[in-house]
Amino acid sequence: MRIGFNTKFRSILADLNRLSSEINLTQLKIASGKNFLCPSDDPSGVVVSLNYKQGISNIEKYQRAIEDGLSVLRSQEAALGNVQDLIARAKVLAIQSANDTQNIQSRQAIANEIDSIVSSILALANSQLGEKYIFAGKKTSGYLPGEKPFELVKESLPDGQIIEKVVYNGSVEDFEIGYDENTTIKLGRNGQAIFMDSGLFETLLALKRTLQANNTVNYNREQYDIQKFIEKLDEIYNYISAERGKIGSQISHLETKKNLYEDFKQTLETNLGNIESADIAELATKLQSLTIAYDAALRATAIVSDLSLAKYL
Description:
single chain; mainly alpha; CATH 1.20.1330.10; two-stranded antiparallel sheet; 8 helices; 6 strands; rod-shaped
């Protein structure tokens, strides 16, 4: 069976086109450093690569959540540290006020400093990270203009006496974040649990009222009241210290998870690089072989093209 000239020529051209395409693809892989440029180059490799990329994307999402959580917890811990310092100062002032050498002016000065401590602790309780309140439980935002989670208000009693008290407008539910699939962690405690349930503001404001009253009728009774305030401030200090310790444990937990995720991410990135990165030495060898084959095909084409009908017959 004789093979026609056109058939031979088309076969050689097909080989040339195939070799040219392979050379171009190999050159592109070398230039890009990628093992595949489109899904058809390595379908199974593309699937594995996409799985690795999805895993890395999920980890990065969890890492962002953890970083946000750590920022909140660290801000809470720092604020409570300052609150403890103010409580300690209030105790020192209470001890000073129990001295019977204090006159009405000095008692009033101490009351004024207690008032300043209340204002400072209020500011710390209303601390914000960005635009979100960190001690307001789940209600981190959404307050009316001029409203805050903690507010000092004046209340009139039936006997006409006006007293000050602090009200809490935040949520009694603890704020949580999700940092893993179906996993959440509480970020500290809500403001009700930390500041209101501890009796912090109630105790300080009562101490302030006692000092302002400057009871000269029943000194022993006043001394008893102040001593109770001192004991209560110790209890509150320990209460806040315990809450701060819980926050420290949460910080440690999240930092451990952060490090684990970083290690896992690096492993996935290494595996992804092994799948996607081209073996430049291997591709260079392949390119050389393809180039030799292409040159040979070109020579064959020249020989076939030089055939005349007379030579063929």
